[in-house]
TrEMBL record:
SMART domains: FBOX. InterPro entries: F-box-like_dom_sf (IPR036047), F-box_dom (IPR001810). Pathway: Protein modification; protein ubiquitination. Part of the SCF (SKP1-CUL1-F-box) E3 ubiquitin-protein ligase complex SCF(FBXO9) composed of CUL1, SKP1, RBX1 and FBXO9. Interacts with TTI1 and TELO2; when TTI1 and TELO2 are phosphorylated by CK2. Its main location: cytoplasm. It comes from the Eukaryota. It is found in: Cytoplasm. Residues 28-75 form the F-box domain. Signal peptide: none annotated. Substrate recognition component of a SCF (SKP1-CUL1-F-box protein) E3 ubiquitin-protein ligase complex which mediates the ubiquitination and subsequent proteasomal degradation of target proteins and plays a role in several biological processes such as cell cycle, cell proliferation, or maintenance of chromosome stability. Ubiquitinates mTORC1-bound TTI1 and TELO2 when they are phosphorylated by CK2 following growth factor deprivation, leading to their degradation. In contrast, does not mediate ubiquitination of TTI1 and TELO2 when they are part of the mTORC2 complex. This is F-box only protein. One of its GO terms (biological process) is SCF-dependent proteasomal ubiquitin-dependent protein catabolic process.
């Protein structure tokens, strides 16, 4: 009697394991069977960080996102508010929106922090957060300097 009970228990355990494997395979197949248009529609509602992560998830998603300007354009245009000249120059030069975004994202973050006054009270180069700094052209530094000079708490060097 106990032997029969053990067999039934083992049978139920293996059924549960098989069912969980089947469910996982079914879920994977579901995503593989989604039409590309549906995936693009889903991706279009993602924020930039999520879209970047999705593009690194698997080969298919990378292929869907890599040259799709309609997915990257809104995020690129959001950066344009900070880096108008840089974004416009890249677009005139024929860069894709994804490439333009990659080329200008870090610069836009540094520039945004400077323009918002985050680094206005820096007294020496040692106080700058090196990890987020990036090379910028003279025009960008000129824009930042103009804003800094106009700040009410700016001290004139005499």
């Amino acid at each position: 009697m106990q032997n029969n009970s053990e067999r039934n228990h083992n049978s139920r355990v293996s059924d549960i394991e098989l069912n969980s494997v089947d469910a996982e395979n079914s879920q994977n197949n579901f995503f593989e069977r989604l039409p590309e248009e549906v995936i693009r529609q889903i991706f279009s509602s993602l924020d930039m960080q999520s879209l970047c992560r999705a593009s690194m998830t698997c080969r298919r998603w990378y292929d869907i996102t890599k040259d799709n300007d309609s997915l990257w354009k809104p995020h690129c245009l959001a950066l344009r508010a900070v880096c108008k000249r840089e974004i416009d120059d890249d677009q005139k030069s024929g860069y894709s929106f994804k490439d333009t975004l990659l080329r200008n994202y870090q610069k836009s973050q540094v520039k945004l922090h400077w323009l918002s006054g985050r680094y206005s009270n820096i007294c020496s180069p040692d106080n700058l957060p090196e990890a987020i700094m990036c090379p910028m052209d003279a025009e960008t530094w000129g824009e930042i300097l103009e804003v800094e000079m106009e700040r009410p708490n700016h001290k004139q060097i005499s």
